[in-house]
Amino acid sequence: MGTPSMGALDYGSIREFKFGCDNYQLLLPTYRSARLPQYPIDNIGVQPDIYLDESIPDWIDYAVHYIQE
């Protein structure tokens, strides 16, 4: 329940490379998900089974009632 996540699951395990300038750094992922390119998550997010938005004032109360039904 909720809203889509922010994503950020396609690449990970960042490695930092310094190249002599304190103002700049290079960050590269060392991991790429095996589900790419067919099923990306970045920029899409993990979609909830039950979407909740601002029209539902109390998400916890809504979830409790949903589970009890």
Output the keywords.
1 helix, 69 residues, 20% strand, alpha+beta, 14% helix, two-stranded antiparallel sheet
Main pleated sheet? 2 strands, antiparallel
Strand order of the largest sheet: 1-2
Order of helices and strands: EEH
Distance between the termini: 15 Å
Q: What is the alpha-carbon Rg in Å?
A: 19 Å
**Which descriptor suits the 3D outline?**
elongated
Helix content: 10-25%
Mean pLDDT: 93
Strands, count:
2
Structural class: alpha+beta
List low-pLDDT spans: none
Kindly estimate the percentage of residues that lie in beta strands according to DSSP.
15-25%
Question: Count of helical segments?
Answer: 1
Account of the protein in words:
The protein has 69 residues and is of the alpha+beta class. It contains 1 helix and 2 strands.
Present the secondary structure layout.
Blueprint: E1 11-17, E2 26-32, H1 59-68
Quick description:
This protein is an alpha+beta fold and 69 residues long. The protein is built from one helix and two strands.
